[in-house]
Amino acid sequence: MQSDCQFEQQASSGLSSATSSLENLTLLEGARCSTDLSKVTDNQIQDILSSQCDSEFTFRLLRRDDYGRGIMNVLGQLTIVGDVTQEAFEKQFEWMFPLHKDTYHIVVIVDNKLDKIIGSGSLIMERKFLRSTGNCGHIEDVAVDSTYRGKKLGIRLIATLRDIASRALGSYKVTLDCAEHNVKFYEANGFKIKGTQMAWYREGEKQKL
């Protein structure tokens, strides 16, 4: 999947033609002791979320009843979502949370006045044997509603996901994939190009770049 937020700060053109249209970017946090994800308290994550909240917008974790707040409309501005009913959404949510809450952390931005979701980003945690059985965070599916761009919400969302991964969950690195025109944006926010993403799609599956 592609993490491709349509940020207000579009990267300038002129990147080398040898650059792939999809880059793998990494924020290196340095080697550190592994964190037992099952022992991370909700308060640690909540403190990070609260630091981004203000009178206009709330940053919080996805809830079971968020289907009606427009989460799928936001994701639809990023890529193909298909025909996801409320029943299907709730079934997927119940599989992910709380059973796999140590792995999945989906942050949404809510317009407080409208009680509407206008941004979303996912953090997926990978447990490893290397780096002293360390943890690696993967940022995916970052999107901000087109009518809210220009408010630096994308910057705040990326910072929130990065801080949850590194500060609360002890990730030694955080990775993401993005479109070529967003590379400079992520570089300005501490990420570095690290390799190139490859993807294989099942026959008949549509892909949106």
TrEMBL record:
It comes from the Eukaryota. It catalyses: D-glucosamine 6-phosphate + acetyl-CoA = N-acetyl-D-glucosamine 6-phosphate + CoA + H(+). InterPro entries: Acyl_CoA_acyltransferase, GNAT_dom, GNPNAT1-like. GO terms for biological process: UDP-N-acetylglucosamine biosynthetic process. Residues 57-209 form the N-acetyltransferase domain. Gene3D superfamilies: 3.40.630.30. PROSITE patterns: GNAT. Pathway: Nucleotide-sugar biosynthesis; UDP-N-acetyl-alpha-D-glucosamine biosynthesis; N-acetyl-alpha-D-glucosamine 1-phosphate from alpha-D-glucosamine 6-phosphate (route I): step 1/2. Pfam families: Acetyltransf_1 (PF00583). SUPFAM superfamilies: Acyl-CoA N-acyltransferases (Nat) (SSF55729). Its EC number is 2.3.1.4. Transmembrane segments: none annotated. CDD domains: NAT_SF (cd04301). Keywords: Acyltransferase, Transferase. GO terms for molecular function: glucosamine 6-phosphate N-acetyltransferase activity. Belongs to the acetyltransferase family. GNA1 subfamily. This is Glucosamine 6-phosphate N-acetyltransferase.
